[in-house]
Every structure is written in C-alpha cells, then in structure tokens.
Amino acid sequence: MIVPPVVMIIPLFVSFTNLSLVGTYPGVIMIYAGLTIPFSGYMLTTFFRAVPRELFESASLDGASHFRILWGIVVPLSAPALVTLVVVNTLWVWNDLLIALVFLPSDELKPLMVGLTVFRSKYNLDVPVTMAGLLIAALPMAILYLLDQRCFVRGLTAGAIKG
Prior knowledge:
By secondary structure, the protein is mainly alpha-helical. It has a single domain, classed as MetI-like (MetI-like fold, Orthogonal Bundle). It has 9 helices and no strands. It has helices at 9-18, 25-49, 53-61, 66-77, 79-95, 98-103, 112-116, 127-147, 149-157.
C-alpha cells in the first residue's frame, strides 16, 4: 500500500514482457488485482474486527456450521464494506491512466480514459469534444455511487469506533 504504482512500472513491464502479458487484458487485470488487494484486505480486516465475536459463538452454539455462519451472518453483515470496496476499487481502476497507457499499447485495447487523451495534444485542444468525453466517462461512476451511496457511507464508517 505504501509503494506508489509508478515505482513498480519498470519491473512490472520487464516481467510482463518476459511472460508475454504486455498488450493483454489478463496482464492488466493481474496488475490491478495486485494493487487493489492490499487496501481491500486492510479495510475488510478493520471491518471484521468490529464485528462482535458473540454473534459467531451464538451461531455455533445453535448448531450452525462454519459455512452457514459465513453465508448467514458474515456475508450479510459485510455487505456495506464489500459495496464500499467495489465502489472505491472501481473508481480507482476506471480513472487510472498510467497502467493502461503503458501495458495496453495497441489502440484496440485502450480503455476509455486513455482514449480521452487523444483529444488533447501539444498543438490541439478540442475543448467541447474533450468535455463531452469526460462527461460520458464520469456518468457510469456517478451512477454507481448514487445507487450504492447508502451502503458506501455505512461501509466507510464501519469499524471506525469500538462499540
């Protein structure tokens, strides 16, 4: 979590070139997964430390199996934290420019944010087209946030104070 992605670009590029993963979606997905997992683990750990142990003890005393405790108690309780992770990680990956620009060199594979850089160059700036593209790029993330706003705020504050 401490090392910025820009520091890892050269070693990742050399490694992924040797593995023939540059210019492929699986390669970029592996990089994004590796960059989002530490934050996700840290946030879920903080959330689950705030869940009272008595819930698990009472469920096991009632005869619930580990699988039943997971699906009947843990998953419903963790919905706000999982929604928060989905929103935060999706926003980060959606807005990332560096990794997609370096690891997806062909025009057919470039995502939307990298494609928006075409409208701006050293000698040309088409402001209306750029703004229209940015609006279109922002709409899915705004809709995602608005749909999950209640769970997002609950997930951010979960585990913040001890009960």
